[in-house]
Amino acid sequence: MVALAALRADAMNSRSTTILAQLDAPGSGALAQDTALLADLRASGTSWQGVRFQVTSARTITQQAAVATLDAVVGTAAYQVVEATGEVRTRAAVPGTPMRFVLVWSGRRWQVQEVSEADG
User: Fold this and answer.
1) Pick among 3.40.50.1480, 3.10.450.50, 1.10.510.10, 3.40.309.10: CATH of 2-117
2) Residue 112 burial (CB < 10 Å; 0-12/13-18/19+)?
3) Per-run averaged pLDDT (10 residues), the chain, 120 residues
4) What residue segments make up the domains of the chain, in order of their start?
5) What is the pLDDT of residue 74?
6) Measuring CA to CA, which residue among 104, 117, 120, 115 is closest to residue 33?
7) End-to-end alpha-carbon separation of the chain, Å?
8) What is the 3-state secondary structure (H, E, C) of the chain?
9) I want to staple 96 with a disulfide (CB 3.0 to 4.6 A). Which of 39, 74, 79, 118 is the partner?
10) Residue 107, pLDDT score
11) What is the per-residue pLDDT for 120?
12) What is the pLDDT at residue 119?
């Protein structure tokens, strides 16, 4: 989870769909959601700087050869939002909430298939 969180931060900081393709499984809901977020950032001329995600807990719920389900709490550290005008605002850190991650093995790495609220 820590490596995936770091990869997502890299994608958000660089607005890179190439990095998203490493992070999220092809055709997944996670890829669609992240791609839409980056498209919104690009369209508005906004960028994020210093985004970091902090995994404070993670536990495996199920694991098979190519699919794993984990519950994890991933918070967001404070970061800068740079508007198209050049205005810079700081977004405060946000503690994580329990989320469920479905990961799929691509043959080279785990990728995010789906993210939802964790059960109970």
Assistant:
1) 3.10.450.50
2) buried
3) 96 96 96 96 96 96 96 97 97 95 94 90
4) 2-117
5) 96
6) 115
7) 20
8) CHHHHHHHHHHHHHCCHHHHHHHECCCCHHHHHHHHHHHHHHHHCCEEECCCEEEEEEEEEEECCCEEEEEEEEEECCEEEECCCCCEEEECCECCCEEEEEEEECCCCEEEEEEEECCC
9) 74
10) 80
11) 59
12) 81
Tokens representing residue 53 in the block: 């995600």
Best CA proximity match to 75, nearest among 53, 51, 46: 53
For the record, the structure tokens of 64 come out as 């098979």
Looking up tokens 């990095």 gives 19
Q: Which two tokens stand for residue 59?
A: 């536990």
State the sign of the Cα–Cα–Cα–Cα dihedral 39, 43, 48, 49.
positive
* Predicted pLDDT at 117: 92
